[in-house]
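Let us practice reading a record.
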Amino acid sequence: MQEFDLAGKVALVTGALGLIGKEHCRALVEAGAQVIVADLDFTNCQLFCQVLGGKSFPLAVNISDTQSIKQAVKQLEFTFEKIDILVNNAAINDHFSTDGTILEQSSFENYPVDLLEKSWEVNVKGMVMLTQALAPLLKMSKAASVINIASTYGMVGPDQSLYTNHEGQQLFYKTPAYPLTKGAVINFTRYLAAYWGPIGIRVNTLSPGGVENGQDEVFLHKYAAKTPLKRMAKSSDYAGALVFLASDASAYMTGANLVVDGGFTTI
């Protein structure tokens, strides 16, 4: 079990105030790491650090803004000598205006391309820019682990029947932005793993399945029916996989996509 110990490691989690992001932070703190809680709002990061306890540090950063990244990296360089673990967790989903029906706006034929651009700015471009900016601190680790959070929808196309009501009427469509950007995350992992492998920086993907978070009973039932383990994930279901990828327990693993989805992508 010593290989899972993260004592002395410094970890940075983006999107740390999200549903899964908070659990990532908790898992890393419990494994002994110092955790940098990074999200858009500094005050809320501070408040979560108080709840989190351990050696946690708040950091405000907008990964889609180059100036914000530069300022954040300067703060990190002043406080830390290295970054051992980077969890690229920050991501957004499409949000539609109230003008017109969501069903119409979310259909591929009518899908606003500017929404795709917004998702790309955060889910892909922002992730790349932040990782690039943190390269000097990651290299100081000598054995850093980068974990890019993707999704089952980066691997398979959405089943649009999940988004129907009990009468089979389509409520909305899952749009192309999330699957497209999460697929890009998986391939970025492969690129960076091959590029940084010779200097000892490992880069892996963690692809989670859907997390139960107040969805209606119809959706929960249909999702469970498509999943061999017959349920959606709890937000804490990814803690073990994350610590594994962050730790020396996965020392010979890079460029991989670790899928934790209850079997969703096997059917």
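A brief commentary: The beta strands are 10-13, 34-39, 56-60, 85-88, 145-149, 202-208, 257-260.
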